[in-house]
Design brief:
about 30% strand; about 350 residues; about 25% helix
Amino acid sequence: MLDIQITKTTSPKAKPADESKLGFGKIFTDHMFVMDYAPDKGWHDARIVPYQPFPLDPACVIFHYAQEIFEGLKAYRTADNTIQLFRPDCNGQRMQDSADRMCIPKIPVEDFVQAVKTLVEVDKDWVPHSDGASLYIRPFVFATDVGMGVHASRNYTFCVICAPSGAYYAEGIDPVRIYVEDEYIRAAPGLTGFTKCGGNYAASIKAGEMAEQQGFAQVLWLYVEEVGSMNIMFKIDGKIYTAPCTGTVLPGVTRRSIIELLKDWGYEVCEEHVAIADIMKAGHDGKLEEVFGTGTAAVVSPVKELDWKGDKVFISGGKIGELTQKLYDTLTGIQWGKLPDTKGWIVPVCKG
């Protein structure tokens, strides 16, 4: 168990007056959690301090070799003013998996969860009160050695920051158009596709910009695995298909939770690779019933159109599918305490 020292700010920021204009990741709370790693001390000096910049040397390893990892989860305020987390242990375990691949010392899952819970409790007044809004939590680790040379750093910093964020769908769930990318790739076997490291996201920006210029919301990578920064699922002829987590797909916490729900509801979930040609054919044959992305920010994001080399498939008549809506309602219901948690997924933090 961490011995977390807490130093509160003497200059608290004004809370957002209009929670309908929070956006995502634009406003940050008063404090942050910080912990350092050194070879002779391990992870040490756990502390919560006022939110502030890091002083970093220009030759710091993180700037040159991108040795870093991050996570993303949320805190929710329920109707009875309880503040709670959704499966934070899964995020802690995934951060360990990312750390192993990126040669970063692992943080024990229980320490990860304790750090998140403590920071959320200190900044509990920042957890939004409006329906659909939440406190987005960003834990991250970065290398802090100073010097050139491509090798693992010896020293690291673990930090957690929080940002009150608005409802992802301000005016209801809006199905999106997806562009199928066939030039660039997001990941390949043996690389870092299953980790949450910044390099994966940096490599996806070019294709995302190209899709946006053509009026599409996201990119579906041709090696059909993810859409933008989300996992993706296809309901074809009554069965659910999604790519397996075999090294190239990020094992999303929302993805994992949705698969559990689908199986509980009697659906057959096929975790296997499906060729884009087969998906398009299913669409033209009328068997592609629903398509949706899954992720922490949106929970589910319904897809109304796929475009591959000019060949277009339209899904669910441009509306959110019945199953997609049920999944969204169920998961958000559990997260905000509107539905009972029968799965043991909720971790209470404190009263608001």
